[in-house]
Amino acid sequence: MSDRLRVKKTYKLYVGGKFPRSESGRSYPVSSPDGTELANAALASRKDGRDAVAAARKAQRPWAGQTAYLRGQILYRAAEMLEGRAGQFAEEVAEATGAEPDAALGTVESAIDRLVHYAGWTDKYTSVLGGANPVAGPYFNHTTPEPLGVICVIAPQDDPFLGLIEAVAPAIAAGNTAVVLASETKPLPALSFGEVLATSDLPGGVVNVLSGRAAEIAPHLAAHADVNGIDLSGVADAELAASLEAAAAETLKVVRRPGRQLDSLGLLRQWTEYKTVWHPAGMAAAAGGGY
Q1: Cα–Cα distance for residue pair 52/133, rounded to 1 Å
Q2: What strand order describes the sheet that includes 139-147?
Q3: Which among 40, 174, 258, 270 is least buried, having the fewest CB atoms inside 10 angstroms?
Q4: Mean pLDDT, range 225-231, rounded to an integer
C-alpha cells in the first residue's frame, strides 16, 4: 500500500482564461448534503465580479466576430473534453447533490448532449430568427439577429451542473460572453467546468466562473452598466430576484425571470437583438443584382 499523500484539488475562480484565487483572499468550506466537507472554494468579491465583467467585455467582440461554424466547433470540443472526464464530473455531481452514481452520470451525459445540441445551432439560428422582409417600395429589407453582449448567469442552486450548462451554452452559442455565478452551496462541478473550457479552444474571457454568495455579488452584476443581460433563473429567493430585476432595469438589461421555461430557440432568442437593414433595390440592380 502506497504511503504517498494524495494531491488534493484546489477550486479557484475562472476569469479571463486563468484560474485566480479571489483578490480578497477569502474562501469558504463546501460540504456534501450529509455534512462531509468536500473542499474549500474561493469566495469571490465585488472586485472579482468587476474583473469578470471586464474580461467578458474584452472577449465579446472577437468571439461574436468568429464564424458560426467555428463557435460550433469549439462548443463541440467542450463536449468532447467533458466526455473524457465524465467519471470525474459524475463523482463531483454525486458528492455535491447526494445523487446516486448512475443518476449523477446521467446528469453529466445530459450536459454533454446540451453542448452538442447548441453546437449544432450556431450556424442555423440566424436563418430561423432572421430573414428578408416584404416592403412596399424599391428596397431590400433584411433582419438578422446579433448577440446582446455580456450576459450574467446566476446558476441554479439545486441543479449546479446541468442547470448551469443549459443557461450558458445558448448564450455563448449566440456570440455572447458570460459571467457565471455558480451555485453557492454546490459550486465544485461548475468550477471544474472551467478546466474543460480552458482546454477546449474557447478564448479566455468568453465564459468566466465565480463562486461565492449570490446576495453579495449578484446585486453589483445586476447594476453593472457594462452587462447587457442577466439570467435570474437560479435565484430561489423571491425578494432577491425582485431587487436584482429592479437593479437591472436601471441600465435596461434583458432579464430572464426565475421560473420562466424556454425551449432551445427561445433561449437563443433571449440573448439576441435584431438589426434591420434597408438597401435601395435600384443600387443592387445597377450593380447587376436585383430580384
Answers
A1: 39
A2: 131-132, 139-147, 272-280
A3: 40
A4: 97
